[in-house]
Design a protein that fits this description.
With 145 residues, this protein is α+β, with helices and mostly antiparallel strands. Helix content is 24%, strand content 43%. The protein has 2 helices and 8 strands; from the N terminus they run ββαβαβββββ. The strands form 2 sheets. Strands 1, 2, 6, 7 and 8 form a 5-stranded antiparallel β-sheet that branches. It is globular.
């Protein structure tokens, strides 16, 4: 694992699988969101014109990761916002519940400007993984395309 590499894509026969890295959970979750949106579109030219807050909860870290990415997909599909920047403010564990507070930033979809390469239909539980080892955190996600 490396905190310097943000993410990499892995071979998968039908869907898209990636590993995202960070110095902590927050950074790894941010990089996972960036990796997921880069499955669909090159986010490097998407400015931050609109920002939304995201709050999700789950019983464990793997489910929290799925909730985080699924919430971003919901806003993409329902509010037509393509995101390029992600800031996870905090991940907390209290009374047996994990919670995540974040903001996602991007712009409204303009089909004359945005060229989508692949559709991400859903975040799956297939080979879902969250690993913390010292200052390195790695998460692995498979998305249904």
């Amino acid at each position: 694992m490396s905190a310097e590499k943000k993410y990499d894509y892995m071979e998968h026969t039908a869907d898209a699988r990636f590993r995202a890295y960070g110095a902590n959970l927050e950074e790894a979750f941010e990089n996972a969101a960036e990796a997921m949106f880069n499955v669909m579109i090159d986010t490097s030219d998407i400015p931050c014109r609109t920002s939304i807050p995201i709050e999700v909860e789950a019983d464990d870290l793997e489910m929290l990761l799925v909730e985080w990415l699924s919430e971003l997909l919901y806003h993409f599909e329902v509010e037509f916002i393509v995101f390029s920047k992600f800031a996870v403010i905090g991940i907390n564990h209290q009374d047996g519940v994990y919670s995540l507070s974040a903001t996602a930033c991007g712009e409204f979809i303009d089909l004359d400007k945005h060229a989508f390469e692949t559709e991400v239909k859903a975040v799956t539980y297939n080979n879902l993984l969250v690993q913390e080892a010292g200052d390195d955190t790695m998460v692995q996600v498979t998305v249904d395309t």
